Amino acid sequence: MSRPRLFSTLQCLRSHENPLGLPRSGSNAPPQLPRAQRGLPTKRPLPSVRKTIAVSSAKGGVGKSTIAVNLALSLARLGHRTGILDTDIFGPSIPTLLNLSGEQPRLSEKNQLLPLSNYGVKSMSMGYLVGEEAPVVWRGLMVMKALQQLLWEVEWGGLDVLVMDLPPGTGDTQLTITQQVVLDGAIVVSTPQDVALKDAVKGVEMMRKVNVPLLGMIQNMSVFTCPNCNLSTHIFGAEGVTKACEKHHVPFLGDIPLHASICDDADKGKPTVVAKPESTRAKTFMTIAGEIAKRIGL
């Protein structure tokens, strides 16, 4: 078997129709019709992926990507073939979280991107295709075309579940994914304070409008316990997400505490589920992942 070719954005011609510069043969992307002939897109499952779930927050800075990668790692530890797709074109986090910064994907014989793997989870991200410090200075058309390529031109090689890490907001990226991809469910992450919850609720309502099943909400940074005196403090408020779940009839999946090691582990590229698998924090991720797996029929 021939060795897969190393993908390089520097060697490929980019255009508005092909911003990632992928060779055009073997594409799984939907055929492009003239704009006047396009109607509403038809939802399709991603090739060779059994179940696909989206992790959303609609608000930046609430720890969504850290939770998404820990859930993906937890699903893998439960025995499921798992991948994670970073759909944030402008601020990809997955390469750092999986300790794969600076790595580049290769191309398959069908000119599809081959995911990178670490800790038993396959991953794909815009962060693998551009320099670590290189900004993506693109307008909407280029961004949407790049997203199309990340969705349809990655050769996952058979997954039980793919976790999609959505960027903050309820705009073009979220709409494209929810209208084109068959999603088995969505998870909304929020911290307890009202500022984050207001946007999280918008994320919940968006998923309902586009008919994506809501698996539930996760409350991140729920409580801080002092390592010296063991005093627990609700820095961002208490029970904000649980009350929002009751009000909007959304399942509550669990609490993730505010703990320095969760952030530290993530920054080191070794998320908590891998770095400290016996900790209470890791067991919480595992419990939530088990509930998610049950809800989507894994």
Secondary structure elements and pairings:
Elements: E1 5-6, E2 49-56, H1 64-77, E3 82-86, H2 94-97, E4 106-107, E5 113-114, E6 116-118, E7 121-125, H3 140-152, E8 159-165, H4 172-180, E9 185-190, H5 194-209, E10 214-220, E11 224-225, E12 232-233, H6 240-248, E13 252-256, H7 260-267, H8 272-275, H9 280-296
Parallel strand pairs: 2-8, 2-9, 3-7, 3-8, 9-10, 10-13
Antiparallel strand pairs: 1-4, 4-5, 6-7, 11-12
Write a concise synopsis of the structure shown.
This protein has 298 residues and is α/β, with parallel strands linked by helices. The chain contains 9 helices and 13 strands.
Using brief descriptors, characterize the structure shown.
298 residues, eight-stranded mixed beta sheet, single chain, three-stranded antiparallel beta sheet, alpha/beta
Order of helices and strands: EEHEHEEEEHEHEHEEEHEHHH
Mean pLDDT over all positions: 87
Q: Count the DSSP helices.
A: 9
Please provide the count of β strands: 13
* Unreliable residue runs: none
